[in-house]
Amino acid sequence: MKQYSQVRAMLAITKASLHAIFRSPSSVIFGFAFPFIFILVFGFMGDNGIFKSYKIAVASNADTTNELYQALENSQGVIIKKYPDQKALEKDLESGKIAGVINIQKNNKGNPPYIFTLKSTTSSNDQWPQFKTLVESVINKLSDEKYPGRPAIAKFDFNFPRDIAVIRKYKTIDFVLPGQLGFSLLASGVFGVAFMFFNLRNTLVLKRFFATPISRTYIILGEMLSRVLFQMLTAVVIILVGRYLFDFTLIKGFETFAELLVLSFIGLVVFMGMGFIVSGLAKNDSTIPPFANIITLPQFLIGGTFFSIDVFPKWLRWIAQLMPLTHLNNALRDVAFQGNNLWDERWEIGILLLWGIVVYAIAIKVFKWE
Fold it and tell me: Which domain holds residue 158?
């Protein structure tokens, strides 16, 4: 008599579940179509109008006690970022995450009182012309208000391209695509798993499985494997479309592509645990969307999907830093554009794994088979 194969039974469940996923409109929309549409929209928009505020750093030897610095700090559209070390500053400058590094010094010649200089890179060449105009308007306004009839309070010392280091350009798609990939993994993991296991339980399919020799562990593994295969396939398509249609940066080619898939897998497994929690808490199928939205919507809005969390006030940035999607998005962007390897992103991955431990501990407590 041929021995019953748990693995073969698991693969049969995977095949049937994968077929059901492709036939489910909601799975296709949340897992693929929705993020894909956003990528197309932002991709065809190009780099116009995405940066409405300018993040800058201040040189360590800059004079920050003068009126010009204070006026710039209070100006709308300017975010002054402070860096703990020079290496982190240079990294963000080279990747275009900041418009430049400013330096305000007293003018030894006396007139105008200050010299305003800007160090930038070609990664930020879509920001520095507008930022230069903004600074000049601040200078002129301050001069007119405080020193009417006198020369401008400062001279803007910036000569393109002499003062700009030539670095690869940080494009809109380089920010948007990882965010949409992260959102796709989140939506598929939470909504997909929640609806899938609730429906299996509600339609008594799980009870029928119990009548077979297959163990409960292999039932879950089979269903999870189908979800992983589907979502990793959509991740591959999203990355390749971004690369070949909109020139999304894969700095190390196939190596970067493979590392993005590893990060996607880690994020998906964590988000699937959240889906198990929702399916266990839901009393009926109409309660799944509210529960799932409580988990996904805050992360979608403030987890760095469409714009950097640096634009938020400090208290909201603190909340965003607690969310797993924020760390997944950060890791995806750092690997794709900056060329970081997975070890470089050990902090972000560690937080995701910590979330995974907490999430699955809760899922085990609340998950229901019947």
Answer: 54-165
